[in-house]
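Tokens help. Our protein:
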Amino acid sequence: METVLINRYFVRQSDLRYTANSQLESLHSRYTGTGHADVTKHEWLVHQHRDTYASIVGHPGLAAYVAIAENECIARTKFEMVERMLQPCGPPPKPSDDE
């Protein structure tokens, strides 16, 4: 079995893989938008759009910038962005039986 020197400790390669996988699983369980091996393109895009809308609504400077660009008041812009978070990319595509 191959060992690697990390921080003055010898660690087996299998231990490194286990540690990396467990850290990745904990990140996926903590943060819903990080994806996983079976995430579809639509799900990934939905997470990206929701994160963007949440960031704009949560930062007053960004919300004001978008409100000026759309020629709307800030409250109306925030309200519309929160509503867009429900289905930011439209309805999910129908699953195909090709797989």
Summary: The radius of gyration is 21 Å. The chain has four helices and two strands. Helices lie at 13-30, 41-58, 60-70, 74-84. The chain has a mean pLDDT of 80.
